[in-house]
Write a structure and sequence with these properties.
single chain; mainly alpha; 3 helices
């Protein structure tokens, strides 16, 4: 009978523990891409010039960030060849940015 008295207490402790489980508080939210269409016909030349200046400055910030994130190739690794998946990703980003800038 002594063991019978212990079992209900053990079940009670387990149910308390399961009720106290923490739910995740962080939720992964997708980052919305904000794109704006600007009609250049209805804006003044000064506004267009200022907008172009701001966009060019932002593009330069992105390019410097890519250069910072781009890994420095190790000349002793890969028999002196540049390579690696990180390098490819940075190169793809660079090509996308240069295409967007030229267009």
């Amino acid at each position: 009978m002594a063991s019978g008295a212990i079992v209900p207490n053990a079940k009670h402790k387990r149910s308390e523990i399961s009720n106290k489980r923490l739910k995740p508080t962080t939720v992964v939210r997708p980052i919305p891409l904000v794109m704006m269409k600007i009609s250049l016909n209805s804006t003044s030349k000064l506004e267009v010039r200022n907008l172009k200046w701001k966009l060019t400055a932002e593009l330069e910030k992105v390019r410097t960030l890519i250069n910072r994130l781009e890994p420095v190739p190790d000349k002793t690794a890969n028999n002196g060849n540049k390579g690696g998946s990180d390098k490819c990703k940075a190169q793809i980003l660079k090509s996308l940015l240069t295409k967007a800038y030229e267009a």
